[in-house]
Amino acid sequence: MKDFGSRLSGAMAHRGALCVGIDPHPELLRAWQLPVTPEGLEQFAEICVEAFDGEVAMIKPQVAFFEAFGSAGIAVLERTISVLTASGTLVLADAKRGDIGSTMAAYARSWLSEDSPLRSDAVTVSPYLGFGSLEPALTLAHNTHRGVFVIAATSNPEGAQVQSATRPDGRTVGQTVVDEAAARNAGAHHLGSVGVVVGATLGHAPDLGKLNGPILMPGVGVQGGGPDDVRRLVGDSNLKAVVPSVSREILRAGPSVTALRDAVHKSAEDFAFLQA
Questions:
Q1: Active site residues
Q2: What domains are there in the chain, each with its CATH number?
């Protein structure tokens, strides 16, 4: 199997750069006239799969909304990931896991090991117990040709308290995360398999020039981020590495599969310049 960065690069060239979220928030379930139950969750996920599968570079289930239903929700997530994986669509589990030692290793096995029912093509992780704490996930992702997206600079106001703090060497913590990720991608021929998460509504972003990996950019659409923000934050030289992540902007078009696909195509057109 090719490494994740190469597979993502190929998917983006073929299907465009967009990543679409499956975020079964209770309010969305109600808006789609679905019950806030595991059965409603399954219907929501099935509609999303039908609408998005094969249409975008990557699909990102928000793990928390499945976990909220307990074991029944996790079972729905397992089935959703399995269907997407079987069709060849890349799956990013938005789990934002972060811990130390054997606990981090267990999280890594859940999302990145070949024998896990939750195995995905990539997973989001938090480095704020120290970048080195991610070693079990980084190592397993490398060994199984999967990917990791490391939270670097998020749009929420509280994030700046940590991410914009300055280290003794003058770099911000967020910049350090990007630099550590870049070191992992050194020598990659296409995109490296260690990406970062950078919010599209930030006033400014870390220097991404040497990342050589994918840049997942949430905050597009309802949250206010757009194509101009992407250009401003990453610079022209990094545009082909950007993966805009859109969820609510598209999901509010449901539950019609046709309307959801139309919303996907509209967003894809807005960001077509990324792969031009």
A1: 96
A2: 4-275 (3.20.20.70)
